Amino acid sequence: MIRCLFVLASLISGGAALAQDLELPPLSPRATVSQQIGTVKVTVDYASPGKRDRTVWGDLVPYDKLWRTGANSATTLTTTGDVKIGGKDVPAGTYSIFTIPGATSWTVIVNGNPKAGGSDHDEKLDVARIDVPPAKGEDRERLTFLFSDTDHDSATLDLEWASVKVAIPVEVDSAGRAKADIDAYVNRATRRLAEAGKFRADNGDVPGGLALIDKSLALQPTWYAHWQRAQVLAASGNAKEAYKAAEQAMALGTPLGDAFFAKAQVEKAVAEWPKK
Question: What integer pLDDT is reported at residue 10 of this predicted model?
Fold first, then answer.
């Protein structure tokens, strides 16, 4: 009896393990497509249903009704930077994509809830809604997203399925992003040069230290570089020039506010260091 129970338990546990390990091809497999546009990466993740001898448009996918634009869970769009979709601002983040297909016009919806699907759609969270005319496309068996016509500033996100193509324009302000990145890089570089100059001077090489700080100031005159220069000059006994540098630091730093400017330290130096 005990042996029979043991065999039965083994069969049950083995069957459960087999059931857990069984993997069959999904009817609507997951798919992902990504595209770099300038410095921004845009990714679409979706479940790709097939026609399977069905009439898709106006039947399987009804016209003029909200569609989650894929199967199973929500179709998502993730962008690593701010973009425009159909001319509408879409900040960096992850969103769900809904559509309202029509015979002559589609509405494409970018929604702020990336987990929304079907009845979960909340219009108040819509970030962008655009109307796009459908065109003749490849007679694809499965719903497919792909990118085309990509350059530094734009790309087209194409939805293709069952001889229909919907082209969704995506734009990136690559020049503006590059300028912001360059400015941030210069800010970091100038600060590090000034810090390096102060360190060099503090360790015995005052001329070399001042040369590095002057390079920082040539790139971008900041209160921080002027303040490093003032401290080096004061420590080397040149109070007159130190005072001038501290005054320049005060003039540039004061408009920034105390959170970004060592106001107390600079004010103390200006008050204590002689003007001559």
Answer: 55
Q: What is the mean pLDDT of each run of 10 residues along the chain (276 residues)?
A: 52 55 88 97 96 94 95 94 97 97 97 85 94 96 97 97 98 95 90 94 94 93 93 91 91 86 86 72
Identify the pLDDT of residue 11: 46
- Terminal-residue alpha carbon distance, the chain: 107
Structure tokens at 178: 């590059």
Number of domains in the chain: 2
Q: Looking at the domain assignment, is residue 17 inside a domain?
A: no
Phi–psi pair at 99, nearest 5 degrees: -140, 160
Identify whether residues 79 and 98 lie together within a single domain: yes
Q: Are 166 and 108 in contact (CB under 8 A)?
A: yes
Alpha carbon distance 127, 111 (integer Å)? 5
Residues 215 and 252 in one domain: yes
| Residue 183 structure tokens | 């400015």
Distance CA(43)–CA(30), nearest Å, equals 13
Strands, E assignment, the chain: 30-37, 40-47, 76-79, 83-85, 88-90, 93-100, 106-111, 126-132, 135-136, 144-148, 154-161, 164-171
Q: What is Dmax (Cα atoms) for the chain?
A: 107
- Residues 190 and 214: their CA atoms lie apart, in Å, by 10
Query: With contact defined as beta carbons under 8 Å apart, do 211 and 178 qualify?
Result: no
